[in-house]
Amino acid sequence: MNKLYKFLIILMVGLSSCNPMTDIYTQLDKEVQPPKATFDYTLTDADYSDISSAAMKVAATHNDSLVASSIGSTNTLPEGYAATYVPALLKAMYPALGKNSTANVTYNFNNGYETTIIDSYTLGATDYESMGGAVAVYKYFSPSNPPGDYLPDFLTTKYPTAADGTYEFVTYDYSTTDPQVGEVTVFSDDFSNGLDNFDSVSVVGDQKWYGSSYNSDYFAKISGYSGGAQDNEDWLISPAINLSGYTDAKIEVSQAAKYLNDQWDQIQVLISTDYSGDVTTATWTPVTIDTLPSGSDYTFVSSGKVDISAYDGMTIHVAFKYLSTTTNAATWEINYLKIYGTVPGKVSVNAGPEATTALYKLSGSTWGEVSTSDYYMLTADDYNAMGNPGPGK
Q1: Average pLDDT over residues 150-157
Q2: SS3 state of residue 109
Q3: 0.70 exceeded by the pTM?
């Protein structure tokens, strides 16, 4: 009886240590594994942006920051960046894939910064004057007159045959505050240098406009009298006057006339917006001037400032048209011509302009400023740090 008891105990122990589900669980563990896949993937714009942001967070130097920023702006990866950032990107996108999954990733490779010899240009006084408005008057840019509003058109005009992809460093003066605004003189000529840049055009007759002076006065002059009154049609036409950026334009003329005999239609002041060298094909509009000379002496009389705001923002030419006949030939003298305009914007204390350089690129037919994150301009300190060829080289 004692032996049988011991046997039963041994048998029960043996049965309790043998679980018939163990093999099943082991098999299931082997079969339930993360899925494995092989696939192709091409980085998207958003991927480059994500990688750029990730690289920017760990950038340790200014150069690191430039490279990190360029990833997002150029949609390219420099050497080494794919191995560093693409695995993390894929893991975030496909968290369920398991070991031995393979992704064939296509991306844009950047083998280094673009290097090229770039021309530079520094704006001069005549360049600012060609742009009109406050820029023409004060000869610098400011918050209300930013360079981006003017330089693209200026560069298009200056480099009409530039190839797509051309770069140009442009140096200009810029003030962080706007200049004092108000009415300014846009154009002025007192004929002290003769007819200067004025066009003198004779349509009929032998008499022409010419520069003259008397005492301290200089003036442009014409007379249709030569041994008697003669038939004449003569024009004196100003250079182009750019009213871009101005409001409330005004004209002022100082003139004298003698022997006119009330033939006021024989002396006219006119304005054209389409004159290109031929007075007969241009459209001319008379300027109404109320304050006139006597017509019977050589006393100069100013017209005062006459409103020509209809031409605000335009480029104009002012013409003095003279006519004479065989029955009436007056003498007409122009002492000066002045054009005024008002510069709009904020009134502030001028902080003084400083030289600024920006990089512009021609893309297609449009010039645009290149972001500073896409290039680095060596400074004197950079050259000093390099040693040879010497400080500030």
Answers
A1: 95
A2: strand
A3: no
